[in-house]
Amino acid sequence: MDRSTIPVIAIDGPSASGKGTIAALVARELGFHYLDSGAIYRVTAYAALQAGLALEDEAALIDMARRMELRFEGGEVFLEGQAVGDAIRTEEAGRAASRIAVLPALRAALLERQRAFRQAPGLATDGRDMGTVVFPDARVKVFLTASAEERARRRYKQLIEKGFCANFDRILQDLQERDARDAAREAAPLQHAPDAVLIDTTGMTIDEVVRRVLELYRQAPAIPAPKA
Ligand code: CDP
Fold first, then answer.
1. How far is the CA of 88 from the centre of ligand 1 (A)?
2. Neighbours of 128 (CB within 10 A)
3. Residue whose CA lies nearest to ligand 1 atom number 18
4. Position 81 in a domain
5. Whole-Å CA distances, 34 to 51, 186, 202
6. Mean of pLDDT values over 123-128
7. 1: CA distance to ligand 1 center in Å?
8. CA of 221 to the centre of ligand 1 (A)
9. Which atom of ligand 1 is nearest to the CA of 134?
10. Is residue 37 in some structural domain?
């Protein structure tokens, strides 16, 4: 099936920049499907830890990633039928996700799972390489960011609201380490692609950011211009 005409809104950016919240709201507003690609890396890392696999053992991770049964339903993530939404949101799972995310063949093995989310009438997705690698023909590409302190504050608040323990300084340090690893890796590094619109959300409300992305979508040409 040719999915190339199904519109994709790709939102990339560093940890806790608000990409997930924005992409999910944009999807809801447009009646689009939503893919949280980070959840795929988090689940893979979580499953690896559960299975006692070494996070550097790429062949074993690929084998596991190919076989794992993963389902997204009603905002929850199911791994082999078990709800793991909370378990994969811990800082430990995030750190493990960013460690396995450096492995190029593992990333390649996860590509099809992500592309399968491109279904009519459209897809809004967030991650690190949605506009650069997974959906290079996305209709709208956004690079969402905010200062590290602002992002750490948001992540802290999110964890506290969910009833987790949280330490602000530790979160800030973790974010900075994860940003550095995500940006420095060779495979699909976190980067502001030249064709992505930069939105710095420091001091912006969620609603303002959502409206800006919707505006970009409405202004985008339906068919990508041919490459010169
Ligand atoms: O919520 P947060 O932005 O902290 O993380 P996430 O989006 O859930 O992603 C967790 C980790 O998965 C990131 O630190 C990246 O290393 C990796 N990741 C990736 O490499 N590529 C993606 N498209 C999404 C996530």
1. 11
2. 25
3. 38
4. yes
5. 28, 27, 24
6. 97
7. 29
8. 29
9. 23
10. yes
- Domain limits for position 70: 3-219
pLDDT in tens, 94-103: 899 999 999 9
Asked, for residue 225, whether it belongs to a domain, the answer is: no
In tens, the pLDDT along 39-83 reads 999 999 999 999 999 999 999 999 999 999 999 998 899 999 999
CATH number of the CATH domain containing 140: 3.40.50.300
Q: Which residue has the tokens 């099809």?
A: 112
Provide the token pair at 221: 């040409």
Residue nearest to atom 15 of ligand 1 (CA): 98
Q: Is 107 in the pocket of ligand 1 (CB under 6 A)?
A: no
228 CA → ligand 1 middle, Å: 32
Say yes or no: CB of residue 38 within 6 Å of ligand 1: yes
131 pLDDT exceeds 70?
A: yes
Q: pLDDT band for position 32 (50/70/90)? A: very high
Atom 9 of ligand 1, nearest CA residue: 38
